């Protein structure tokens, strides 16, 4: 197992290096100028040139890349070209809301979708099954911003149960945190609830037809034991895969939810950075996101062995 | 329970009652959704309106400009010598930087030099300046080498970039490098620890600030702060901002999208209005260096073809919030004029007929016009589409190239042929404070210089008039010159003036004494506790 982990982590290094190179080059090929973003629309080319010079943007591309990678290997991700603040500090300010939002959304996803999927499989072909499948189609089809506005309209503007926007960290107390994170979490989870409930239903249907399930029932085990101890455990691998990759996707794709609910997270930061061509910030966020995918994929693989002892790591 | 225990309980209960009876000193916090996120802080380096507004929170200026467009003393009183060549500024008593140190004339000299190095109008002024020196801790003297009629006006200007004063150690930051340590002497202090670039900026009342005794008027007069804290929030989604205003999460939105105003009109708890009487001018700029707009007749034909009413309808929609203003300097300013307006007025059909006739005789060979369209800027995203249709109707071949605003901004500075990434026409907009006279109006630069704003028109007549304007200190004379410049600029097709639009702010009931001004002002305003 330890050997497997070390091998996987070592394999991640060239992947990350390649991502760093591609991101660096793609950003430099994209039109746009951070100096213009600093100087504003009414600045003259002379003013812009002075800013470019002070930012070192006129240095040869190779020299910029070598400096950046060298600093990064020492743990220094540099400074934002636009705000002149340390990149890691800016990411640190924004990563909390995004992680909190993704975690709440994933908890809601698991709590809602897995029971729904199991119920739908249990009542295969019946009214409940059709209802759950219809719900999942809606979850897939309706864009998150529409779901967000509907939730705000009903629960924040009309019923006034929740605030319409904003974020409070957990450090401010559990209730303020949950009060503000619940609606965005629910909106973000909608598509994943649809996805995971369908996946759970399909996996459970497949497993429920297996011989060992029939044997378990023949032995007189209760339906609860058959479903949760025998069937769900064997159906868990595809569900875990979807949940794990879904979590990574949430972290990297929360921008719409963050915008609609005005959550100051990583998604909005990266959009801002892209619009302003803030190279060091974009590069760092993409690398960290890629790193998150690598780690989550590793965790998913490890969780396979925990749920299915037949899986062994070489 | 013992007697002692009962007594203790009673005292505790009394203490609790007393604590409830005496209200805690409440902090008044004004939560505002600004028109753009604050991503940079240096108000000398950026021409962006949001950075300028931030500048006026933290920093102060030697002079302020009042609602009559008159420079007034702010940090300093001033005296001008009889020959108009020597300006003496005396700092008023009690001025302190936010770090507690005294404001000195030396700080102000360094600040003026830094400002002038970064501001186009300031740079022009410095061509006429012989020296700026601190003669004591409180007195600085600016001496002109030759007459220049706009020293006071420039030192008071609220347009980009205002001459903000900062401590010498900050003002000596190398050229092109940003100042991020926000130590000013203005009415608010910047809270660095709560700043999240692009998301939130926080300011607290500067208790050491001593306002002038004169009434508040734009950036002049006594800047009396009545709230303890101002929090700027960036909300990229206008619907979210409006929801937040209606629910009381925020107190004020600096600029509401006009098409969403009906949502607020239905709410009795919300008020709205125009706080900036000057508004913005939407402009269509031609690239004079490339065909087909290197031909004056082709530019004139395009100006006839384009229609202010149609473009304003496209951008703003509600006629209550736009004006078909033909003045290049804005309509509410002293230099407003209708000189050369025949290219902009008259019926759309009549002008289209003139456009077709002029284009037919211009030698236009069908060279495509590449019009840049920013897709991520609501106010400018639809106008190129409408403008392109009008130009096609007149006989032009037009291609609309869609891109994001950042790409457009950087592409506009290149003067290579279209096939290599150049452009022929773009739309943008300007706050009227940035164009209200020929000295600051970048689109009226007729030098054709590489360092001028994109478009690069060439007109020796305009350059001669602009030089004449620089030395003129008489308003009537300035009006005459400005009017002549405008007339030539329109006739030469410098740019198409698409009209003027107002920006509308909205706030919750109870917020009072909001100050009208050329930018959003946060002194004077009150919020009930």
**Termini distance of chain B?**
42 Å
The CATH class of the largest domain in chain A is Mainly Alpha
Distance between the termini of chain A: 7 Å
Mean pLDDT of chain B: 93
Number of helices of chain B: 16
Number of strands of chain B: 21
CATH architecture of the largest domain in chain A: Orthogonal Bundle
- Whole-number tally of structural domains of chain A: 2
Helix count, DSSP H or I runs of 4 or more residues of chain A: 13
| CATH topology grouping of the largest domain in chain A | MetI-like fold
Low-confidence runs of chain A (pLDDT<50, min 5 residues)? none
Structural class of chain A: mainly alpha
The major β-sheet of chain B equals:
7 strands, mixed
Series of H and E elements of chain A: HHHHHHHHHHHHH
Spatial order of the strands in the main sheet of chain B?
10-11-12-1-13-21-14
**Helix share bin of chain A:** over 70%
Using brief descriptors, characterize the structure shown.
heterodimer; A: 314 residues; MetI-like fold; 2 domains; 0% strand; B: alpha+beta; 16 helices; globular; disordered N terminus
Topology diagram in text:
The complex is a heterodimer of chains A (314) and B (529).
Chain A: H1 2-29, H2 34-39, H3 45-55, H4 61-73, H5 87-122, H6 127-141, H7 144-158, H8 174-208, H9 211-218, H10 223-252, H11 255-260, H12 266-275, H13 279-307
Helix pairs in contact in A: 1-13, 5-6, 5-8, 5-10, 5-13, 6-8, 7-8, 8-10, 9-10, 10-13, 12-13
Chain B: H1 3-21, E1 29-33, H2 49-58, E2 60-61, E3 63-65, E4 71-73, E5 76-80, E6 86-91, H3 105-118, H4 120-126, E7 129-134, E8 139-144, H5 151-156, E9 164-165, H6 168-171, E10 188-190, E11 200-205, E12 229-233, H7 238-247, E13 252-253, H8 261-265, E14 270-273, E15 280-286, H9 296-305, H10 308-315, E16 322-323, H11 348-360, E17 369-374, H12 378-381, H13 383-394, E18 398-403, H14 405-411, E19 425-431, H15 460-471, H16 475-491, E20 495-501, E21 505-508
Parallel strand pairs in B: 1-12, 1-13, 17-18, 17-19
Antiparallel strand pairs in B: 2-9, 3-4, 5-6, 6-8, 7-8, 10-11, 11-12, 13-21, 14-21, 15-19, 15-20, 16-20
Helix pairs in contact in B: 3-4, 9-11, 15-16
């Amino acid at each position: 197992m330890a050997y497997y982990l070390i091998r996987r982590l070592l394999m991640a290094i060239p992947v990350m290096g390649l991502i760093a190179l591609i991101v660096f080059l793609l950003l430099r090929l994209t039109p746009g100028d951070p100096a213009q973003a600093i100087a504003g629309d009414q600045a003259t080319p002379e003013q812009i040139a002075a800013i470019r010079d002070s930012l070192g943007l006129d240095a040869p591309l190779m020299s910029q890349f070598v400096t950046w990678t060298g600093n990064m290997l020492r743990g220094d991700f540099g400074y934002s070209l636009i705000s002149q603040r340390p990149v890691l500090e800016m990411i640190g300010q924004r990563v909390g809301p995004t992680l909190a939002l993704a975690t709440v959304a994933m908890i809601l996803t698991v709590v809602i979708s897995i029971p729904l999927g199991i119920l739908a499989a249990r009542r295969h072909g019946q009214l409940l099954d059709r209802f759950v499948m219809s719900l999942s189609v809606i979850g897939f089809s309706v864009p998150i911003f529409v779901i967000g506005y509907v939730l705000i309209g009903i629960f924040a503007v009309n019923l006034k149960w929740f605030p319409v926007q904003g974020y409070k960290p957990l450090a401010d107390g559990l209730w303020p945190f949950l009060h503000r994170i619940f609606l965005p979490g629910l909106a973000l989870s909608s598509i994943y609830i649809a996805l995971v409930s369908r996946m759970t239903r399909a996996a459970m249907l497949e497993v429920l037809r297996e011989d060992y399930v029939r044997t378990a029932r023949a032995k007189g085990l209760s339906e609860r034991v058959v479903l949760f101890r025998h069937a769900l455990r064997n159906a868990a691998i595809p569900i875990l895969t979807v949940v794990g990759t879904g979590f990574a996707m949430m972290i990297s794709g929360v921008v719409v939810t963050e915008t609609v609910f005005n959550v100051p997270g990583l998604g909005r930061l990266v959009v801002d950075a892209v619009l302003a061509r803030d190279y060091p910030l974009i590069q760092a966020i993409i690398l960290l996101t890629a790193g998150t995918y690598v780690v989550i994929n590793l965790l998913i693989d490890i969780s396979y062995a925990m749920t299915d002892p037949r899986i062994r790591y070489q | 329970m013992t007697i002692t225990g009962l007594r203790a309980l009673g005292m505790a209960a009394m203490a609790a009652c007393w604590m409830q009876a005496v209200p805690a000193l409440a902090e008044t916090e004004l939560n505002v959704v600004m028109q753009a996120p604050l991503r940079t802080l240096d108000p000398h380096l950026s021409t962006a309106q949001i950075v300028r507004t931030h500048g006026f929170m933290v920093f102060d200026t030697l002079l302020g400009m009042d609602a009559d467009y008159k420079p007034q003393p702010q940090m300093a009183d001033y005296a001008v010598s009889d020959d108009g060549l020597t300006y003496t500024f005396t700092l008023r008593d009690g001025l302190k930087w936010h770090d507690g140190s005294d404001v000195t004339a030396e700080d102000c000299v360094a600040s003026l030099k830094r400002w002038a190095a970064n501001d186009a109008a300031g740079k022009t002024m410095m061509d006429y300046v012989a020296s700026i020196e601190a003669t004591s801790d409180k007195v600085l003297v600016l001496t002109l080498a030759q007459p220049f009629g706009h020293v006071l006006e420039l030192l008071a200007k609220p347009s980009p970039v205002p001459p903000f004063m900062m401590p010498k150690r900050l003002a000596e930051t190398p050229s092109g490098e940003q100042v991020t340590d926000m130590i000013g002497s203005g009415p608010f202090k910047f809270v660095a620890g709560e700043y999240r670039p692009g998301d939130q900026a926080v300011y607290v009342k500067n208790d050491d600030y001593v306002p002038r005794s004169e009434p508040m008027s734009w950036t002049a007069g006594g800047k009396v702060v009545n709230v303890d804290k101002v929090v700027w929030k960036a909300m990229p989604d206008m619907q979210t901002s409006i929801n937040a205003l209606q629910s009381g999460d925020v107190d004020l939105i600096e600029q509401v999208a006009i098409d969403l105003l009906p949502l607020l009109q239905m709410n009795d708890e919300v008020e709205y209005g125009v706080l900036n009487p000057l508004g913005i001018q939407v402009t269509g700029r031609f690239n004079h260096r490339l065909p087909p707009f290197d031909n004056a007749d082709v530019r004139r034909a395009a100006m006839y073809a384009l229609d202010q009413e149609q473009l304003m309808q496209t951008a703003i929609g509600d006629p209550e919030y736009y004006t078909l203003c033909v003045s290049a300097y804005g309509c509410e300013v002293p230099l407003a004029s209708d000189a050369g307006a025949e290219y902009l007025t008259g019926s759309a059909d009549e002008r289209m007929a003139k456009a077709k006739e002029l284009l037919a005789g211009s030698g236009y060979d069908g060279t495509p016009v590449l019009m840049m369209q920013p897709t991520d800027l609501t106010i400018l995203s639809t106008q190129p589409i409408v403008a392109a249709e009008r130009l096609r109707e007149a006989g032009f071949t037009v291609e609309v190239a869609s891109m994001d605003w950042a790409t457009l901004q950087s592409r506009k500075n290149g003067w290579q042929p279209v096939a290599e990434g150049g452009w022929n026409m773009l739309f943008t907009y300007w706050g009227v404070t940035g164009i209200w006279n020929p000295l600051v109006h970048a689109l009226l630069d007729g030098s054709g210089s590489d360092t001028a704003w994109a478009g690069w028109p060439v007109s020796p007549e305009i350059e001669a008039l602009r030089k004449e304007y620089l030395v003129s200190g008489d308003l009537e004379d300035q009006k005459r010159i400005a009017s002549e410049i405008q007339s030539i600029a329109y006739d030469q097709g410098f740019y198409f003036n698409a009209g003027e639009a107002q920006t509308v702010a909205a706030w919750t009931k109870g917020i009072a004494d909001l100050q009208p001004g050329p930018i959003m002002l946060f002194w004077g305003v009150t919020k009930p506790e």
